[in-house]
Amino acid sequence: MGLLCSKNRRYNAADSEENAQVLESLGSQQFLSRQDLLMIVPLASGFILCTKNADIYIFLAYNSMQIKLLFQTGFDEAELKSYISVIHANVYQTIKVLYDGSKELAQNETDSMKFVVSSENKEIGEKLSEIGGRLDYPRLTKELAEDIETLWADPAIQETYAHGNELQLPDCANYFMENLQRLSDANYVPTKDDVLYARVRTTGVVEIQFSPVGEHKKSGEVYRLFDVGGQRNERRKWIHLFEGVSAVIFCAAISEYDQTLFEDEQKNRMMETKELFDWVLKQPCFEKTSFMLFLNKFDIFEKKVLKVPLNVCEWFKDYQPASTGKQEIEHAYEFVKKKFEELYFQSTAPDRVDRVFKIYRTTALDPKLVKKTFKLVDETLRRRHLFEAGLL
To answer: Residue 268 has what DSSP assignment?
Structure first.
């Protein structure tokens, strides 16, 4: 993921036909309701694109649910209830991935028997897999929750969960599996954490406005966020539109070093992130651009790195563990951080090395950390504009 911030740039109706086609493909004509808005286009890894007009920024593809909970009034009960179907869908999708994955691993792994679900649970597994493959999911009942709990407790499913990096298993899997009784209650109303853990592939566009320093505070910028889907093949269609960009926030999920892309299971996610970061750094339109790198999902990274060697990723193949516990976690994190720093300077021309480059350790599900990070970004960008205006 990444975020781009630019100074004023007007969309001209006479812009190229190609640009118009990109807009049309997004179904994003609503972005043109103000002439001074930057055209928004999607990115494969979830870039956030923004422009500045007076005190307005435009963002693309950050977690809009997180932003609303942190910087606005949050969700009322009706909005929370609207996520019930999403959360229940996540539950069914998760258990289907695990059951189907156990059968696949039982066929392909050398020690195949540990992935074989017990005979008494196979019927449950088949039923839940069928439900998970539907277009419309039933509401999660106590009976279905008990079936899922039974299957989740099966040693073969637990072994499969331990091999989740080989499957397209969502990060929310364990959280929802451990809360099935509450999620299946007839009077269930999702909590803030439930909403934050919920995962849904973005279709269409969601807009939200917020201020990193607090609602209604005039001292900070007002941000407009657009949450959209990403596409790997669209980059060259929009990159030339961002001349004059003053800041880029690039979000890298450091916990995904042992996972593959959803759309290409032969491609390691960290290698894709590396290539994307390298590509963005080398774009001529960003030659004077400040870069802020968010090394995200640290909470997952610190648990995983003690179990899954960092050097399973080609980019980190020269990594050598140095300790255990918290010391090893910090050692591994600093190694990853250094890799990104090296890539930044390798991909930055000598006359551009003095541009601002900052790295932040982030955990997207930690409200305090996300809020603190956005405040730092807000302050950095405002100081940058004051400097450019000769006021600093």
So the answer is: B
